[in-house]
Structure formats: C-alpha cells, structure tokens
Amino acid sequence: MLVLIVGAGRVGSAVARSALAAGHEVSVLDDDPLSHERLDAGMDTTWEEAGGRFTVGTALEVEALIAAGIEEADVFIASTNGDNTNLTISQVAQRRFGVDRVIVRVMDPARSDWYREQGLNTICPTKHAIEMFNASLGLTA
C-alpha cells in the first residue's frame, strides 16, 4: 500500500516513519528540502535507504503531487501547517485522483466538522483539546 504524506513536520514525519516501519511504501512531499532531516531522525539509516521516498515540491501544484506518487496512492494524508492547503489538496486527492482514504489535519473545529460532512476524514487537534479540557472539568459539550 502506498501512503502519500504531504508535510514533513513533526506530525507528517512521525506518521511517515510509523507507516514505513509497518511495512508500507511511503512517499513524503514537502516544499522545504531541509524537512527531510525529520524523516531521518531516530533511524539507523537514511529515509531512502529504509525504503522511503521524498519529493521537494509545492503540494498545490499537481505536477508535484504526481511526482510524489499520488496516482498510485492508496492513502493520502495532508499534514501541512495550513488548513487551506490541507483542505484543498485533500479534495484534489479525493476528487481528481480518486484516492479512497484521505486524512486531513484541520485546526479549525467548525471547518473540520463541515469538511467531514463532505466526506473527508478530518483530524482536529483543537477540537480534541477542547473536549479533553471539558472532560477534565466534568463538562459535556
């Protein structure tokens, strides 16, 4: 199974290393060539020697998505630091390229809920933090 992850920050690189360790083919796309260092962190070999792929490019450009392997992707994960970018590229992955499993990180809870209703699998750390806070006070949402 090919997992394409856009964004090699802390979240994207951690998920990428986990997926690679689980035996999946993993491709990471990021516009910062230095973000590659996060993929190598904690590994005995380099990311590529371990079997990972890394592409430098802007995810909003279809050519970069194609170079990273979106046409073969079984799973697409958008984990950049921008909601707009994540939501846009997730819809491109789902609608244009027909990726069945699309996961998108969205910081804004209202947008996360709306896009979930539109068929995207959203993860919202902000919403989770609010729920945890409320639960710690015995409050219900």
TrEMBL record:
Cell wall biogenesis/degradation recorded as keyword: no
SUPFAM superfamilies associated with the record: NAD(P)-binding Rossmann-fold domains
PROSITE patterns: RCK_N
Domain RCK N-terminal: residue ranges: 1-130
Upper lineage: Bacteria, Bacillati, Actinomycetota, Thermoleophilia, Solirubrobacterales
UniProt xrefs under PANTHER family: POTASSIUM CHANNEL PROTEIN 2-RELATED-RELATED (PTHR43833)
Record's keyword terms, sorted: Ion transport, Potassium, Potassium transport, Transport
Short name of one Pfam family: TrkA_N
Record flagged with keyword Nucleotide-binding: no
Protein name per Swiss-Prot or TrEMBL: NAD-binding protein
